[in-house]
């Protein structure tokens, strides 16, 4: 992904620092390989366990280096936006969807055929992916000692796409180059699989259930960040008061990012809930498995917007299509 501007400038000015960063790059590649190996195991377990077909659609390995005066998730968020927009526009295989140019032609064809019906989900997908990645990486933003943490997550997206994500990060000091400052090294590996079987099995209800779990996780992360902030600032005030202002500013940034991520996911989540609640008000399933509706499908187009109608139609097919319809 890149390096913060402070680190880039330091590499230009300092030969020893360039050597230091080159060694860091070599170590990062080893970590990326470890993560990728574990992700491959998780992919095999997921699809074999469910008996679903699957093929690799796209994926990438990235390392990012940041000096903590320049903490930002902008590069990561820009990458997610680029991929999401390319998928939404059907612009693949392409460099905007890293790794898609190596996908099998049949996989690309399946994706193009299958994803069109799920274009309305991309806004929610992008918000969910940004939130899950930033939630993992912000845990490193105020580390005060050398530490390495590794996390693996996976999430069904939509239209048969499934994200498998792994990250690791290490935070350390090196007063030779940066006095009383920290350098963060982060490795992110992601693989996105395409499965028609999974796309047919995972519907609107499952997407909402998964999103609800993610919202709960984000809420917990906000509470953890507040607790960590209080504990860290109390210790710094006592032991290193000169770092108090900078540390508090970093924690404030973390909390603001987490709150923003959760609010954006919640906004998209609520849009879906409003549609499904409206459908449930219009459809009733009787004890004899018959459906009574006050709004046949032709009328739904007058009730919902174009995007809402797409979600409503999918939800109706999932929840009510197995029952006899009584207008």
Q: Which characteristics define this entry?
A:
327 residues, alpha/beta, five-stranded mixed beta sheet, three-stranded mixed beta sheet, 10 helices, 58% helix, globular, disordered C terminus
Main sheet makeup = 5 strands, mixed
The end-to-end distance, rounded to whole angstroms, is 55 Å
Weakly predicted, low-confidence segments? 323-327
Helical stretch count? 10
Helix-strand sequence: EHHEHHHEEEHHHEEHHE
Helix/strand class? alpha/beta
What's the multimeric state?
single chain
Strand content: 15-25%
Shape verdict:
globular
* Rg for CA atoms: 23 Å
Give the overall average pLDDT. 81
**Can you count the beta strands?**
8
Helix amount: 55-70%
Strand order, sheet with most strands? 1-2-5-4-3
